[in-house]
Write a structure and sequence with these properties.
This protein is mainly β. 0% of the residues lie in helices and 42% in strands. It is built from no helices and 16 strands. The chain has strands at residues 6-8, 14-16, 25-27, 51-55, 63-71, 76-83, 86-92, 97-99, 108-110, 120-123, 130-136, 142-146, 151-157, 160-167, 173-175, 185-187. A six-stranded mixed beta sheet has the order 4-5-6-7-8-9, with no helix packed on it. Strands 13-14-15-16 form a four-stranded mixed beta sheet, with no helix packed on it. The protein is elongated. The N and C termini lie far apart (87 Å).
Amino acid sequence: GGTSAFYINNSRNVGIGTTSPTAKLNIGSAYNDAFVLTDGRSGSPGNLYNSSIAWDAFYADAAKITLTHNDYSIGYRRLHFDVSGAEVMSLLHSGNVGIGETSPSSKLEVRSETATHKLVSLNRAASATAAMYLGNDSSNNAIISSNYSDLIFGRDQSSTLSEWMRIKRDGNVGIGTTSPTNYKLEVNGTV
């Protein structure tokens, strides 16, 4: 007697490394990688050439992760994520990441087909509500906006924020003061 490495239950679920599969293919491992994909051109895991993993591949809203080894248009290797037949995110061999952009030229590049002041949102602590948005308008102007809160500019040094300027949600601007209330621009110090 030995231990079965492959198991099919009465529901026709297949288990590899588990005797109680709960899905059509359930891969489990207590000690090693649960899933390694090779493409046949190389005997070692991780050396993949133009390989992909797909979910619901027969449906229009399928999701797929693809490793492209020889994509010379963007400089050799890249990993890209597709949903509904469209590439939504790319990771290049250089470490550049593109969201909505297939050939990012910086460490993070985010692209939308339409102008929006909500292209990127930075959320409040422990919340799904945005604190700040980054975006653009139809005239290609950059936009930095707060979500009905003050916008603070400053400098971090040793994990301590030194506030230099504040734009209140009512539009008043304070330099050297955190509560400009009397004028559109209040400066605490020499101008």
